[in-house]
Each structure stands twice: as C-alpha cells, then as structure tokens.
Amino acid sequence: MAAAHSVLGEQVRMPVEIRHADAASALFLVDAAAAAELLDGTGLEPLKVLPGKAVLSLAFVRYVDGDLGPYHEFAFSLMARQPGRRNSTGAYIHWLPVNQSFTCEAGQSIWGFPKLMADIDITPGGRCEVRVDGQFVIGLRIGDGLPVPGSAGGASIDAYTARNGLLRRTPWIMNPAKVRMRPGGARVELGDHPVADQLRALGLPKAALFSSRIGALAMTFEDAATVLQTREAR
C-alpha cells in the first residue's frame, strides 16, 4: 500500500503526481565560498564546476493540475553533494515560497521543503515577482528561446532539504514538453529582503549561463528519505 501523509485533515498519498504545470528557470555560476556558507550545517557542500564557482538555479512554476492543487512557486536552489559520497549530487532547495497554504504545509511536513507563504505574480510573458509580507524580494524575467527536445528541459535529479535537524533526499522525476532554451536570457532584479542579500553575496544580479521555459511539465515526487542528522539536531 502506498504511503500516505495527513495534511490539514486530508490524506496525501505517495507518490505525488503533478499532471500539468509550466515553468521557467535559469542557471548561474556563483561564488562557491558564498554557496558553502549557505550550505553550512546541512551536511552538504557545493558542487564546484569551475575553480571557485558553484551552480545556482532560480525557477518559477505555475502548478495547474496536481495532487496538491493549483499554486505558484519560486525556487532558489544550489547544486550540492555529500562530501566524499559518489553519485550524491542533487539540488539543495534553499528557499521555496508558494502562494497556497495547503501545499505550504504539505511541503514542510512531508518533504521538509523550506516553503513559506508569499505573493507570487507570474505573467504569461515569462516574468515572476515575489513579495513576502509586502516586501519585494526578487523579480525574474526569462526570455523566449529556441524549441528543443523535451529531454533537454531538465534532468530528473533528487532534491535535498534540511529542516528540523534532518537532511532529507527526495526522488523527483520530470517529464517536460514544449521546451524552449537559450544562452543567457534571464534578467534578475533584487529587493532589500534578506534572501535578496544572500543572492547578492552569491554574485547576482549577473548574466545567466542559460535559461529555459517549459510549456507543459509533468512531475512525480516520491516520499523523502532521511540522509543524516544535521548539526542542528546534535
């Protein structure tokens, strides 16, 4: 029998299916020392692709049809790995605001995602703005690119989360279609929120390595597995 979790009086069964969403994202080379500071205490280290450089992903998703209902989401994540462990590379989800309370609670309680409530405005032209308690945090615009095969729209890599003293790893499968990509193609505007200051410390605003827009995205989230206790729990 599939595992189930009780969320605000409702049962959420594993795996969670997202039947339709659309998304936009950009990858950036950022300062590895600043990335290591954000990962301090999680049990992870940044994946260094060049000397002194780590990889940051910024993305926004409009969930249309899925097991957690419709909602908007913004994701700030770093490519990371467990020190000394081969085949441990994944996406560490550092900040994950959403605009609906059910998915916020489900994300926190089931997977340990750092979800919080925010105002997230996503426009058809490929722009997203995020405000927390009325304070502007970030604006991200993703330009249109050239059509590419769906397989180029994103790798199905595991997601890492660190919450309540536990480092968790969640298997995550993406099935993208209607994908468009280009070098660069992203414009970032930062506010005066603490998360914006973290992005500045990483080196933003700056040009993206490349960006993508996914017109039709299906996803599957498995249950989270605990990797280790972080320093917070010791």
Task: Summarize the helices and strands and which ones pair or pack.
Layout: E1 4-7, E2 10-13, E3 16-31, H1 32-39, E4 45-46, E5 48-50, E6 53-66, E7 71-81, E8 90-98, H2 101-111, E9 115-117, E10 119-123, E11 127-132, E12 135-142, E13 146-148, E14 159-163, E15 166-170, E16 172-183, E17 186-190, H3 194-202, E18 210-221, E19 225-229
Parallel strand pairs: 8-9, 8-14
Antiparallel strand pairs: 1-2, 3-6, 3-18, 4-7, 5-6, 6-7, 7-8, 10-11, 11-12, 12-17, 13-16, 14-15, 15-19, 16-18
What gyration radius follows from the Cα positions, in whole Å?
17 Å
What does the overall shape look like? globular
Order of helices and strands: EEEHEEEEEHEEEEEEEEEHEE
Overall mean confidence score, pLDDT:
94
Low-confidence stretches: none
Helix amount: 10-25%
Largest sheet: number of strands, sense, barrel closure: 13 strands, mixed
Question: What is the number of strand segments?
Answer: 19
% residues in beta strands: over 45%
User: Structural class given helices, strands, pairing?
Assistant: mainly beta
Number of helices: 3
Separation of the first and last Cα atoms: 34 Å
Describe this structure in words.
The longest helix is centred in the middle third of the chain and has 11 residues. The chain is mainly beta and 234 residues long. 12% of the residues lie in helices and 56% in strands. The protein contains three helices and 19 strands. The strands form three sheets. Strands 3, 4, 5, 6, 7, 8, 9, 13, 14, 15, 16, 18 and 19 form a 13-stranded mixed β-sheet that branches.
